[in-house]
Structures are given as C-alpha cells and as structure tokens.
What we know:
Helix content of chain A: 25-40%
Radius of gyration of chain A: 20 Å
Largest sheet of chain A: 6 strands, mixed
Structural class of chain A: alpha/beta
Oligomer: homodimer
CATH class of the largest domain in chain A: Alpha Beta
CATH superfamily of the largest domain in chain A: ATPase, nucleotide binding domain
CATH architecture of the largest domain in chain A: 2-Layer Sandwich
Number of helices of chain A: 11
Largest interface: A-B, 47 and 47 residues
CATH topology of the largest domain in chain A: Nucleotidyltransferase, domain 5
Order of helices and strands of chain A: EEEHEEEHEHEEEHHHHEHHEHHE
Amino acid sequence: MAEILLGALDIGGSKLAATIANDQGPIARVVQATVKSGKPDALGQQCLALLAAAGNAANIDIKEVASVGVSSCGPFAHQDGAIGLVAPNLCGGLTQENDLPNDWTFIPLEFTLRKQFSKVVIENDCIAALTAERYFGAAQAEPNSVYVTWSTGVGFGLCVDGHILRGKHGNAGHAGHILLSEFSDALCGCGNRGDLEALVSGRNLAKHYARAAEDIFTSATAGDAASLNIVKDLAKWFGRGLYNLVTTLDTRCILVGGSVWRHHAELLSPFVEAEIHSRFPALTKGVTLRSAELDDLVADIGALALVMPESWVADWRNRQPWIKLQTIALD
Amino acid sequence: MAEILLGALDIGGSKLAATIANDQGPIARVVQATVKSGKPDALGQQCLALLAAAGNAANIDIKEVASVGVSSCGPFAHQDGAIGLVAPNLCGGLTQENDLPNDWTFIPLEFTLRKQFSKVVIENDCIAALTAERYFGAAQAEPNSVYVTWSTGVGFGLCVDGHILRGKHGNAGHAGHILLSEFSDALCGCGNRGDLEALVSGRNLAKHYARAAEDIFTSATAGDAASLNIVKDLAKWFGRGLYNLVTTLDTRCILVGGSVWRHHAELLSPFVEAEIHSRFPALTKGVTLRSAELDDLVADIGALALVMPESWVADWRNRQPWIKLQTIALD
C-alpha cells in the first residue's frame, strides 16, 4: 500500500502556511504573507504553490498527496456547491474601510483546490482549532466544549453533545459578532457597534482606547489603576460573551487561546470566571475555563486532523510529533 | 405482537397534561393544575396519577404503557444520573421572590417516573417543540433550524447540522437568558437584568411597563404611537436575540411560537426581520422567520415524538391525528 500523505493549509489574514505530513507526523511547513492582489483565485493559486513548496521541502512530489485539510479565516459562502471565502480581512469588495489592494467579494477556495486534490475539507479556523484540542489538547473526552480565540479578533469553535457545530454555510461560531452593549461606540470590522469583538479584540481595543493593547495590559499588571479598570472592563465583556454561550449551549468546558489570552491569562482569568459564575447557577455551575494547549500550531494541527485517518490519532497524541516541526519562511 | 402504547407529559409552570397514544394517534388527554406543594416528589406522583387517568379515559391499563416522553419546563439538573427539575417557577427554594408554597430545590422527575416506566425520555419544552416541528411542522427537512417561544417566558430549541442540541444537563436553548442590554433595569425571574426574557417576555414586559401586554399590542395595532414605539422596542430586542443566535449557530430557519407571537405576528414580524437582516449579511442572508405550525399541542406532540417508533412518523405527518384529540380537564 502506498504511504498516505496529507496536506494542510492555515489561511489567515496576514499569513498563509502549508504543511505536509505522513503517519509519523508533520514533515515540512512553509509560510508566506497572504496574497491580497490579482484575480479572486490568486489565494487558491498561492495555496497550491505553497503546498508544492512544502512538498519540495519534504522531498515529496505533491501529486502523491490526495487529501488536504484547510483551516481558514471566514466567513464562508457557497457557490455552485463549493466553499469560498467572504472574509472582510481578505476581500476588498466586502469591507467598509477598504485598505485592501483588491475588490474581491468571493474567493473560490474549494473550487481551486479541488482541481488538484481529490479530498478537500475546509473549516473555519476556530472549528479546526477545536478539532485539534479535542484530538490532542485540552478538550479530549469533553463532549460539551467551546474553543475561543482572543486575539486580533474573537472567534469560536463550538462542540455540543460531541458534535462540532458547522451550520448552513460552515459559519457557526461567529459569536464574536453577538451584540452585548447597546450604547458603546466601539466599532467592529463587520460594521456592528458594541459586539463582543468590537469591545475586546486586540485590534479594536487599541483603536478604542488609542493605546497599544500590550501597553494597557503591562500597565495594569504593574499596578496602574486606570489600566486595571480597562482590563476589568474587557474581562467583564469577554465573560458576558462566554456566559451567553454557556446559557445557549449548556457548555461545560471553555478553552481559551489567542495572543491576548496567552500573554495575560493570569491577570484576566479571575475576572472572567467571576463574570461567568455570577449568573444562573443551574447553567454556569461546574463550567471550567482552561487555556488551550496547542496554541502556536493549533490551526495547522487542526487542518491535519480534519483529514487524518483515525488510526493515527492515538499515536500522535502520545508522541506529539509536531514539536520538532521546522518552519521555512518564503518571501 | 402487543400493541405499542405511549404516554406523554407536558409539564408547565401552571398546568400539567398527560396523553396516551397508539399508532393511530393520541387517544386521550387529561389536564390539571400543576401541583406546587407537598414533598419534592409530589409533581412526579401527579404525573403518574394523570397518566393513569388518561389511560382510564382511553380505556387502557396504564401498566401496558412502557414508554413515556416528557416535555418540561427547565432548567434540568442530574442527581445520581437521573434528570430532575431545578425550575424557578416550580421550586420555591430557588426563586428570589418566593411566591410558591414549597421550598423545593430539586424535583426528582426521572427517578419517580422510572419506578413505573421502562423508557423515559425527558426534554426541555422547547426541544420537544422543535422535535415536533421537525417531524410534523414547519421545520421538516431543515437541518439548521431554531424554535423560539415568545410567551410568558422566552425559550429556544436549537438544531444545527441536523442535531438537536442538548448540552451537559439538557439545558441547551436557555438563550432567553442571554444578556442584551447593559443598562436596562428590566428584571428576569433568574435575577438577570437586561437579558432577553427580562426585556420582552409577556410576564416581564407587563411588569416593566405597568400595563397588560395585550393592551400594549392592541393599542399599537389601533395606531397609538406610544404603544407602537414600545412594540418596536420589543421587536428590536427580540430581533437582536435572534441575530445573536444566527451569528452563533449559522441558522437558516427560525420558527416562532408562543402566545405573544401567535396573536401579534403580523405587527411584530417586519420589525423583527429588519433587525435580523440589518447586520452581517454573510450570516443573515437567506435566514427565514416563520410561525410554528403545531402551536397548541406542540408540547404534547413533541413529547410523543421523543418516544415514537420511526415507522409511525410518515403516517402521522400525513393524517395529523392530533386534530381530533379531546382534552379532559380535572380539578
């Protein structure tokens, strides 16, 4: 039997990563700035080129790879039955304040990848991350779990009764855009005022307070009262967003990842927990908040998990073969 | 083979209904005011007595009934692996403003019913309602659908990717308690201020505006500008709650039931739809709002659907045998 080879793509607003793996683990990973100009299929073409480059680095002909898992920023839409991206941070034609060098309104991702690969599974980045945490990280054996990234933006992967939620276009988990504040003028990239992402995301809070997010957290940790009040306010909104999810989904375990959380979990955690547990004990009792475990490579491992044979899972869980993975940066 | 006989219970804050059915349809239904005093198992005992009474009315010995489906107000909790009720409108020991003649903190429902029946399936009333609408009503063949009741309270049943969501204790869908307003003093029975139910439920809006809900809607329909402004405000909050669900679950179809909606859907519908569709087109485009179809008996049919052999479904869908069902009221 020929060796099974897998490809993985991690598509973000600023960078694109391609990984090649076999049953022993990821072999090579190549990363490049995400293409944002040219025809709408330029991103799909870049994915194909980057997978070929990762194949080269792994000494593998990319034609031997049949299956590709994709972790991508969303949201998604369907055209002729195939998934494409309608992501405001990639498609210039969809944003209100257009600072992108294109007027794309739809990126035909699945259509382009299917020309070369027979199996393509595309999921929202937080769904891929939750898949990785369920296979290999902090959400193993917990059927009612939520993954949330608190970073430049805020996104969720949702698992209820052991099913990871996808929804009509695979966009379940866009709960960064739930409305929480009726009067806040904090503005989200989607146009909402007062949604969760507007109130707490790294990008938006820096705009809102006209200070670097990092500066606010560092000052708060150093004891500055005004900065600490901002942090408490952020934690309150984030906690309210999580409370809203718990009351909607009867979740037990919340995993938090993303750069804001990774660097400031110790400061934020008590305030966020207090906000969640201050309400409706029948739903919030027993809810736990944990840090995600696979943070740096969570998207890549999640993308691989989407197409991985089940027989590989226990061995990878045991050996964590991604730890030795080297990344090659391309211009 | 012996005839298959099913029991169904509809447990509400004010009334309890028991139904007996065979493959031809529901045979008898008995209803009585919900017991709220005595020992914590008084409600379970009333369920057993009412099922026996429905059996009598159907000329059936209740011992021949093996399976009972239950649609109940929640929330639920587990004790020794069995579901019980921790519902603030039944358990006096759980409410802040205690007007109930008991100090219950847990009603051992499943434990009591299992003494007599070998199969007991208990679901939140909105989950049962959604099951009924998916089998026989307005949500057939739509895997991404939400049922919401807008009545004395506000509750949800959620279906994503064809799975009806239950959660760690079967409490998924308590999204009536998501926080929407940061400054409103509208108070919910759960203690929250500014959650969806506080802002729009029949009980709470009557308190908040010190006018009967019905009066507000009748005056608005008759052209009174102040009343119409209240209705627009209610529709805005209800629409925001639905938008939050759509953005969380990527729902396609929203079914609305409950007394407030049933009587005023024509007035409310345009405002609610406008609120949903005013945001995030990638998620809200194509979302439809429909009235539920099985409203009066939705809980009873839902409870039966929870334990019904699949082979009955197509025939019941076709004949709608519940239409002829007579109800007997007991003192």
